[in-house]
UniProtKB/TrEMBL annotation:
It holds the Pfam family Amidohydro_2. GO terms for molecular function: hydrolase activity. It comes from Multifurca ochricompacta. It comes from the Eukaryota. Gene3D superfamilies: Metal-dependent hydrolases. This is Amidohydrolase-domain-containing protein. Residues 218-369 form the Amidohydrolase-related domain. InterPro entries: Amidohydro-rel, Metal_Hydrolase.
Length: 398
C-alpha cells in the first residue's frame, strides 16, 4: 500500500542506556509479576524472536541468551535498522538519565538525521526550585515568608530558562508531565496567594529533608509552570507535548483524560498541543479535541507495544473515526533498551497497515489516500509540526 522502506520520524522517545547499564531493570511492584501473562508480552516475545532470527517457538530465556551474546553497538544498530527511524525527538528528563543513559546526540550513531531534544519543563522548574531553597537555607532563613518577591524570582528564572531552551536550535519542543504530578485540570488563571503558599511548603519540605530531591508536586506551582511554558512556546512556535492517559501506578487515571485540557487549549490558541500516547484509554476524547481545535495534534505512541495487537488496531480505528489524518503522529516512546524502539515501530506499522487496508476494502479510502495517511502519520506531520525541515529517506539495504 505504501513503501514500507520509508523511514519515520519518532516524535517522542527517551534515551538508551549506556553499554555498562544495558541490563538495568526499571519496573517494580507486585503487578509486574502478572505482566508475563498478557497478550502484549506474548507479542513482544514473538516479535523479538523474529528480530533475533530465532526459531518461532524460542522462549524468553532463548531471547535473553541471544541478546547477552551480542555486542551492544551491534544490538543498537540492528534494532534501529529494523525500526526504520530517521530522526528521534528525545525527552531526556527521565529520572536517572544522567547516571545510566546516553546523551541525546549520542543517538545520532543510529539515525540518518540529527536527534533533537524535547525539554521536560517540570525538571527545569525543579532545578530552579532547588537552587532557590538552597540559597535561602545557606542564607540562614528559617522560613521564606520574610523574603520579598520569592514568587517573581521563581517565575523570572523559569521564564528565562525556558526561553533559552526555545531559542536553542537543537530543541524541537517542550513536554509536560503535569498529568503525573497534579493532573491535567490545569487552571487557566493564576492564584498568587496559592502559588506563594506552595513555595513556602516547598521550603518547609526541604528543611525537613535536606538530602531529599525536590519534586514539583504542588498544583499551584505545576499550573504556573504549564501556563508559562505555553506562552513561551507560542512566542517561539514550539509544540508542547502533554503526557495523557496510561502511565505508571503514580498517575491518577481519572485526571489523565485530555478532556481536562479543553479550557487550557481554548485559552491558548497560538500554542500547539501534542497529546501523547493516544490518551489511552481516552482515545475518543483526544480525537474530539484534535478535530475541533486547530492547535491540537495526537501522538499514537506507547500503545505499541503496551497494548495487544487487536487493541492497537482498535485504537487506530477509533482515532481515525474523527481525527483529521494530517494531525496524527507516530512515536515509539522507546526508552532504555533498543528493542523498545524496534517494537514500537514494527507493531505500529503492522497495525496501521491492517487498518488502512480495511479502509480501502470498505471504500473509505483509495489506495493513494491510504498511502498518504501512512506517510503523514509516520513522517510528514511531525516534520511539519516540529519544523524539522527534513527530506524523507528510505532504508538502506546495503
Amino acid at each position: 500500500m505504501w513503501d514500507d522502506d520509508r523511514m519515520s520520524i519518532d516524535n517522542h522517545a527517551h534515551p538508551l542506556l549506556t553499554a555498562e547499564n544495558r541490563y538495568h531493570v526499571e519496573a517494580e511492584g507486585a503487578a509486574l509479576e502478572d505482566a508475563i501473562y498478557t497478550l502484549p508480552h506474548a507479542a513482544a516475545r514473538r516479535d523479538l524472536v523474529r528480530l533475533y532470527g530465532l526459531p518461532p517457538h524460542a522462549s524468553w530465556e532463548d531471547v535473553k541468551q541471544d541478546r547477552a551474546a551480542r555486542l551492544y553497538d551491534e544490538l543498537c544498530r540492528m534494532c534501529f535498522r529494523e525500526a526504520k527511524i530517521q530522526c528521534i525527538l528525545i525527552d531526556d528528563g527521565l529520572g536517572g538519565v544522567k547516571e545510566i543513559a546516553e546523551g541525546y546526540q549520542w543517538h545520532d550513531n543510529y539515525t540518518t538525521s540529527p536527534t533533537r531534544r524535547i525539554v521536560r519543563v517540570e525538571i527545569v522548574a525543579q532545578e530552579i526550585l532547588t537552587e532557590l531553597v538552597q540559597a535561602f537555607w545557606h542564607a540562614g532563613f528559617e522560613e521564606i515568608d520574610t523574603v520579598e518577591d520569592v514568587l517573581p524570582m521563581f517565575s523570572s528564572s523559569l521564564h528565562k530558562r525556558l526561553s533559552s531552551s526555545a531559542e536553542d536550535p537543537n530543541v524541537a519542543g517542550f513536554k509536560s508531565v503535569v498529568c503525573y504530578r497534579t493532573g491535567l485540570d490545569v487552571a487557566t488563571l493564576p492564584n498568587e496567594d496559592a502559588e506563594v503558599g506552595a513555595l513556602h511548603d516547598v521550603y518547609r519540605h526541604y528543611r525537613t529533608g535536606i538530602n531529599t530531591p525536590l519534586r514539583l508536586a504542588h498544583k499551584p506551582l505545576n499550573d504556573l509552570v504549564v501556563r508559562t511554558t505555553l506562552k513561551i512556546a507560542a512566542m517561539h512556535n514550539k509544540p508542547v507535548q502533554f503526557h495523557t492517559g496510561l502511565g505508571d501506578a503514580d498517575i491518577t487515571l481519572t485526571r489523565a483524560s485530555p478532556a481536562h485540557l479543553q479550557p487550557l487549549i481554548a485559552a491558548n490558541p497560538r500554542t500547539t498541543f501534542v497529546l501523547l500516547h493516544a490518551s489511552y484509554p481516552y482515545m475518543r476524547e483526544a480525537g474530539y479535541l484534535t478535530a475541533v481545535y486547530k492547535n491540537v495534534y495526537l501522538d499514537i505512541g506507547e500503545v505499541f507495544p503496551a497494548v495487544s495487537g487487536r487493541g492497537q488496531e482498535a485504537l487506530i480505528r477509533q482515532v481515525l473515526e474523527l481525527v483529521p489524518t494530517n494531525k496524527v503522529m507516530w512515536s515509539s516512546d522507546g526508552h532504555w533498551w533498543p528493542e523498545t524502539y524496534y517494537l514500537g515501530s514494527y507493531q505500529a506499522r503492522q497495525a496501521l497497515s491492517v487498518v488502512l487496508q480495511e479502509a480501502v476494502k470498505a471504500d473509505e479510502l483509495t489506495k493513494d489516500e491510504a498511502a498518504r495517511v501512512a506517510k503523514d502519520i509516520l513522517f510528514h506531520t511531525a516534520n511539519r509540526v516540529y519544523l524539522l525541515g527534513l527530506e524523507a529517506q528510505h532504508v538502506s539495504r546495503e
